[in-house]
Amino acid sequence: MATTSGSGSIIHVPRRTSVYLYSTKNLVGSALALVGLVLFFTGVVTTLWPVVVVGLYLVGILVAPSNKTYDLHSGWDPGDVRKALGEQLKTINGKVPPEIIGKVSNIQDTILALLPRVERLPAGSEDLFIVQRTALEYLPTALEAYLNLPKAYATLKPVDNGKTASQVLLDQLTLLEGKMGEISDNIAKNDSDKLLANGRFLAEKFGRSELQVPGGALPPPGGSTAG
Predict the structure, then answer these.
(1) 164: exposed, middle or buried (Cβ count in 10 Å: 0-12, 13-18, 19+)
(2) Which of 30, 135, 149, 200 is the most exposed place for a label (fewest CB within 10 A)?
């Protein structure tokens, strides 16, 4: 964040300071400090008003809860992944805008549908790597980074080309959603190609007349031929 001093020069405020300005502690402390100013302007306190204002601000910092930090990562085990995805959705419910909930749900549904199928992909498969990284790293990291911001900062403060953290997260989730859909299509096509190849194999191997076997015709019912 940058502000302009009286001399016209730019003062850069560190990002950590900018985040703190939107934190619950600062908002509560500032609200109580305003109460101190109201007491001063109404004549309730006079000469000691700076002490009262600062004291109320510090009280606000002490009583306000700290911002909770989140860890949404898990290990790569289908059962653990299913459980972790469920916990992710439960954790973000009510803490992120509805459109983000929708994106996360779509990504998770695709991952859950892919879990039984990605096990059949070769170990070095790029699609397998991306699904694993999305479930274990990309999705939880994006959600954690957002949740660990003060809510007011995440929804009001522009952080990238005029976009708020909410909008940046939505863009990231849209990319993940598109990639998971692409991988799902790739795996479905791979499965259908295998089915078609197997059909061609069966047609080549067993497409002859049922009455023909290697070495000649099948014997008639009864097991003997005409003498």
Answers:
(1) middle
(2) 200
CA neighbor of 107 nearest in space, from 35, 178, 47: 178
Does residue 23 fall inside a structural domain? yes
Q: Report pLDDT digits (tens) over 125-167.
A: 788 888 888 888 899 999 998 998 888 888 888 988 999 999 9
Q: What is the pTM (predicted TM-score) of this model?
A: 0.56
Domain residue limits at 101:
78-206
98 to 56, 80, 101, 105: CA distances (angstroms): 36, 26, 5, 11
The verdict on 55 and 82 lying in the same domain is: no
> Where would I find the beta strands (DSSP E) of the chain?
2-4, 10-12, 158-160, 163-164, 212-213, 216-217
**pLDDT score at 176:** 94
Q: Are 72 and 143 in contact (CB under 8 A)?
A: yes
The Cα 104–Cα 8 span in angstroms is 44
Residue 32: both structure tokens together: 């109580």
| Cα separation, 82 vs 46, whole angstroms | 61
Looking at the structure, do residues 50 and 94 belong to the same domain, yes or no?
Answer: no
**Are 149 and 43 contained in the same domain?**
no
For the stretch 88-124, pLDDT in tens is 888 898 889 999 999 999 999 999 888 887 666 666 6
Residue 137, φ and ψ in degrees, nearest 5? -130, -60
Q: Measured between alpha carbons, how far is 98 from 84 in angstroms, rounded to an integer?
A: 20
Residues 98 and 65: beta-carbon distance below 8 Å: no
